Structure formats: C-alpha cells, structure tokens
Amino acid sequence: MTAIASNAVAAAYTAGQSAGTGGAAKMKTSSEGGDSFASMLEEAASQAVDTMRNSETTSMKAVAGEADLLEVVASMNDAESTLRTVVAVRDKVVQSYQEILCMPI
Length: 105
Hints:
With 105 residues, the protein is mainly α. Helices cover 79% and strands 0% of the residues.
C-alpha cells in the first residue's frame, strides 16, 4: 500500500510540474520578494514524496530484518499522516473547483 501511495503522490507532483506552472512560479506573493504559491506547493509535494519513499525504504529494511521496529512504526505514522494531508488538500481543491463551476457569470 505504501508503494501505491508513494506512486500516487509522485504522479501528482509530476503532473503539477508538467501542467505549466512556469508562469505561476514567477509570480511573487509580496513586494518583499516572497515565495510564490506554486513554489510552496511544489516544495510540499516534494516533501510528501520524500516521506513516502523514506517509509517504503524503511519497510523494505524491516522485511529484510535490518530495521528497528520503532523506526518502522514512526516511519509508517509519518507516511500515514502525509497521505491523509495530501488527500485532504486534494479534496479541498476539488470542492473549491466545483464551487467555482457553480458560480453565476
């Protein structure tokens, strides 16, 4: 299951990269030169993918008998928390998109 979740997060990250965020990434949020929203999302997606891959690696080490049980449990908890966050953000984005579609012109 961890591999499937990791692949799903990686696919979402890759899709976001190839969806033409180049123009959005250049937009600044403030006059002080703050990071753009697109770069913040890119960094969050990258961290989510890294967390999932770390969890998968730790799980494989546990299967081979090379990892401590506490390390495996902590890694799986991190992965579960990350997956729940990614799903919640996705659901909120879809809900927002549907609300925008229902707005009168």
